[in-house]
Specification:
heterodimer, A: 200 residues, mainly alpha, Four Helix Bundle (Hemerythrin (Met), subunit A), 7 helices, globular, B: 582 residues, Cytochrome C Oxidase, Chain A
Chain lengths: 200, 582
């Protein structure tokens, strides 16, 4: 047996261990995001396979408003930028910057949801509902779930903003980073949904 | 040498906080209490699942007769009972037993930590599971009864109420299972973070006890496989509630898609339940053989290989579902390939036993008995992996016997082995060995007498999923086999009575356990039985591999992981003896 191991080597060994340097919160959030990727991955794979197997979805897909979708893509990408700037502000200790950029991120997230709401309204007015065929079922399910995730992200950022306003955020600054990881994830999901639902 | 990081400083004595009853026993954040809650929940649900097995078997042996303690089993009831038996046993017995109870209890203790990385999340994952169980039990009492589309909930049977006549039962089933998934995803965060991040100095990844490895791999497999089924469950629920048609063919949906989503999860799930069972055996067999575990690293890599392969075998559950025959061959190959890592584990354990000083305690009996029965399950799996043979066997009792022969040895035999082994650590008292051995003999003999006849019935072509077989002439020759299986089931259920007596008697009147009653090496044996709040009274440092048993050069035949080396390393430092664990 490896009975020759002696104390100093043994102790040093674990401190060389790369995993122990990763903050717990980060492991947890990445775990959560990985499981979320599998959920959205499941939806997206089902959608792609269905669309591949059954023709005639182009006619339905033509009715979504790609222009508003494109605007929303820009809005969401910009919100990822402001989120990164908020994280940066935490790092450099810019108290005003944290509040500003968290506020901007929240505002952009809400803008996305409002635009999405107008889209839904127009589609319902034209008579397209989740029951109007498989494309619409997938469209409303995936964008709806994405919207819910965005709403959760907005709530997380709101709680961070409250902490920033109270000044308590400096004790746990990595929370902005962790909230940011989630925010970017929601953004990336949209990067997949936009071409798959609007551009094909 | 680096200085200690904050997580290491956290390890150490904690004052027992004076919390009320609710915070100490109900909404506790202590991983040991949570583990016992998982244990209690799984044993309670096992009673329900066992009762379902009793009704199923009675109906199959003596169709449409009065079942003592229940009444007559109606056809619709039979479908519902068989659905609930599978669902309860997999999701609410096996998973809370081997993952919830043993994972929660042992991961922090074995890595030397004071608790899980996120104690409140840990509490939440148990109570989420509790809600899931409550929803599932509630589904028994809604109008039209519980889900009756099989534990796999195949669409379109599950997608429209008209097919099974079940309305809210199936919806609640979906909700309960989704809640259960959420619970174990939360639990997995703790498993991973604790095992990676909270190891004490010296506890490198290659010194982790096997149980931690298996729980870790199981948690990752679960996380990576369950997502698409959660997506599918959403879609199925919408099909039922909102009227979409993802899985309903008449509006362009595809029922086969559900099977793909289900088994993409379902096959890794077998290993999620199975690997921790192996982990328990791999802890127990070296202890009672007084030998190091053979092939530690090979086993770890084998399990990782099995985990990766488990994502590309799912279609072997669908050989008879009308998939493209060109798909069948690659899935046959991967399925047969996946038996290689499991053969590695089995042979490593056999070699570990070879020439050891074997001591047949109840724990060891269950571990070795489970290993032996698993071999039958594994070998019959190779039969089913080959697509040509599977087409004949898949719809028969052969498959029923096969999956009971894989899951029961790992989850139930393994779980019982673990319970006999760690009961002293969990509750501070020893279990009664005589009752334990009676329990083992009854379980082992009766289990084999239930399922060997079912193998035979399956090979004879007896289809499964039939409510009443006596009306088919071609099934009459198989009927005696079903009678044997049912009588053995009664024995199997009665055989659990000594366990129940033993469990509760030992809780109250068992002999007080010392710290290390089995002379085992891993860190949980280096603290009190049961461990205090915070687990260890002094910070742990690990110097050794987990399985240093029976070293003839060592002063005693076990060397705990925290035992400092007696002498400094020899000059020149090249004298590394490599027997056993590597």
């Amino acid at each position: 047996m490896g009975a020759s191991a002696h104390a100093p080597t043994a102790v040093a060994a674990v401190n060389d261990d790369a995993f122990k340097d990763i903050a717990r919160g980060r492991i947890a959030v990445w775990w959560f995001l990985a499981s979320e990727i599998m959920v959205f991955g499941g939806f997206i794979t089902c959608y792609v396979l269905f669309r591949y197997a059954h023709g005639g979805w182009e006619d339905a897909a033509r009715h979504v408003n790609w222009k508003l979708g494109a605007v929303n893509t820009v809005v969401l990408l910009t919100s990822s930028l402001t989120m990164i700037l908020a994280h940066h502000a935490v790092k450099v200790g810019d108290k005003q910057g944290v509040k500003t950029f968290l506020g901007l991120t929240i505002a952009l997230g809400l803008t996305f949801l409002v635009i999405k709401g107008f889209e839904y309204h127009a589609e319902f007015a034209e008579g397209f509902t989740p029951l109007s065929g498989l494309f619409w079922s997938f469209y409303f399910l995936m964008t709806g779930l994405h919207g819910l995730h965005l709403l959760v992200g907005i709530i997380i950022n709101l709680s961070l903003l409250v902490m920033a306003l109270r000044g308590t955020i400096w004790a746990c600054g990595d929370r902005v980073e962790l909230g940011g990881l989630y925010w970017h994830f929601v953004d990336v999901v949209w990067i997949f949904l936009f071409p798959l639902l609007y551009l094909t | 040498m680096a200085t200690a990081t904050p997580s290491e400083i956290r390890v150490g004595a904690h004052h027992e906080p004076h919390l009320g009853f609710l915070r100490s026993y109900v909404f506790s954040v202590d991983h040991k209490v949570i583990a016992k809650q998982y244990l209690g929940l799984s044993l309670f649900m096992a009673l329900l699942g066992g009762a379902a097995a009793y009704l199923i078997r009675w109906q199959l042996a003596w169709p449409e007769t009065y079942v003592p303690g229940w009444g007559y089993v109606e056809p619709q009831q039979y479908n519902a009972i068989i659905t609930m038996h599978g669902t309860i046993m997999i999701f609410f017995v096996a998973m809370p037993f081997v993952l919830g109870a043993f994972g929660n209890f042992l991961i922090p203790l074995m890595v030397g930590a004071d608790d899980m990385a996120f104690p409140r999340l840990n509490m939440m994952s148990f109570w989420t599971l509790f809600v899931g169980s409550a929803v599932l039990i509630a589904s028994f009492f809604v109008p039209a009864g519980p889900a009756a589309g099989g534990w796999t909930a195949y669409a379109p049977l599950s997608a429209r109420p008209i097919y099974t006549g079940v309305t809210w039962g199936q919806n609640l089933w979906l909700i309960a299972v989704a809640i259960e998934f959420a619970s174990f995803l939360m639990g997995g965060i703790n498993f991973l973070t604790t095992a990676l991040n909270m190891r004490v100095p010296g506890m490198t990844l290659w010194r982790l006890p096997m149980l931690v490895w298996t729980e870790l791999i199981a948690a990752v497999l679960f996380m990576l496989s369950v997502g698409p089924l959660i997506a599918g469950a959403f879609m199925l629920l919408l099909d039922r509630i909102a009227g979409t048609s993802f899985f309903v063919p008449d509006k362009g949906g595809d029922p086969l898609l559900w099977q793909h989503l289900f088994w993409f999860f379902g096959h890794p799930e077998v290993y999620v339940v199975g690997l921790p069972g192996f982990g328990i055996m791999m802890e127990i067999i070296p202890v009672f053989s007084r030998k190091p575990l053979y092939g530690y690293k090979t086993i770890v890599w084998g399990m990782i290989a099995a985990g990766v392969l488990s994502f590309v075998v799912w279609a072997h559950h669908m050989f008879v579902s009308g998939i493209d025959p060109r798909l069948a061959t690659p899935f046959s190959i991967t399925t047969i390939l996946i038996s290689v890592p499991f053969a590695i584990i089995v042979f490593s354990l056999l070699v570990t036993l070879w020439g050891g000083k074997i001591e047949l305690t109840s724990a060891m009996l269950f571990a070795v008995g489970g290993l032996a029965t698993f071999i039958i399950g594994g070998v019959t799996g190779i039969f089913l992996g080959s697509a040509g043979l599977d087409v004949y066997l898949h719809g028969t009792y052969f498959v029923v016997a096969h999956f009971h022969y894989t899951l029961m040895p790992l989850a139930i035999f393994g779980g019982f082995a673990g319970l006999y082994f760690w009961f002293p650590k969990m509750f501070g008292r020893m279990m009664n060995e005589t009752l334990g051995r009676i329990h083992f003999l009854a379980t082992f003999i009766c289990f084999n007498c239930v399922f060997i006849p079912l193998f035979l019935a399956g090979v004879a072509g007896n289809p499964r999923r039939i409510y009443e077989m006596s009306s088919y002439d071609f099934l009459k020759p198989a009927q005696p086999l079903h009678v044997i299986a049912t009588i053995a089931t009664l024995g199997l259920l009665a055989g659990q009575i000594p366990f129940i007596i033993n469990f509760f008697m030992s809780l109250v009147r068992g002999r007080k356990a010392e710290r290390n009653p089995w002379h085992a090496n891993t860190l949980e044996w280096c603290t009190d039985s049961p461990p205090p709040h915070g687990n260890f009274s002094q910070p742990m440092v690990v110097y050794r591999d987990p399985y240093e048993y029976g070293n003839p050069d060592a002063p005693k035949d076990w060397m705990a992981q925290n035992e400092p080396p007696a002498a400094p390393a020899p000059l020149g430092g090249g004298q590394i003896r490599r027997t056993g664990t590597r």
